[in-house]
Amino acid sequence: MHIYCLLFPDYEALDLMGPVEFLHFLPDVQLHYTSLTGGNITAHQQFSVATVPLSALPADSLLLLPGGMGTRALVHDAAFLAALARACAQSAWVLSVCTGAALLAAAGVLDGLSATSNKRAFAWVRSVNPRVDWCSVARWVRAGKYYTASGISAGMDMTLGFIADKYGVDTATAIANRCEYRWQGNPAQDEFAALYR
Asked: How confident is the model over 104-142, as pLDDT tens digits?
């Protein structure tokens, strides 16, 4: 399986690195770090990742989209949103973390679907596209091929949820144990939602 991580300036580091830590343990995966134009992309935490320009995605690929402060400008970037919509159409699965869901919503791919996002930014994310069925209490949400996660570390739980759906719970549990990670396996349990109401 090919995994494409779509990066942009000022993304949130753990939104990328947490899921990647789990995904790279899967059998026969190839990780690709992409951006709209290629080149070094700097996270909010001030380190750079070398990326290649986003191109057509092969069948059976997974698109991973982080969130972060950079999403605020990108929800108005027509070129980025068009490229994102094409990549989503080509992907077998799409995983977004935190405010990455705002980008999916702005691209129109979540219309009529359930989704969630970071509860600290929930009002803003919801305002991007009211045609999405936004879930205000959820660690992560699956709607067909789309998985959306709440704030930052929730992306790790969502990724293990995806792995459980595709490869089985035993595989997800084994990866979590290997990383000494306590997996919150219930997508409806969102203890942080109440903090930001």
From this structure: 999 999 999 999 999 999 999 999 999 999 999 999 999
Output the CATH code of domain 2-196: 3.40.50.880
Task: Using DSSP bridges, classify how beta strands 140-143 and 133-134 pair: parallel, antiparallel or unpaired.
Answer: unpaired
Angle, CA of 191, 94 and 158, to the nearest 5°? 25
Q: Is the pLDDT of residue 14 over 90?
A: yes
Token reading at 61:
């690929």
pTM of the predicted model as reported, rounded to 2 decimal places: 0.96
Cβ atoms of residues 184 and 139 within 8 Å: yes
Distance CA 99, CA 182 (A): 23
* Nearest Cα residue to 161 out of 191, 194, 139: 139
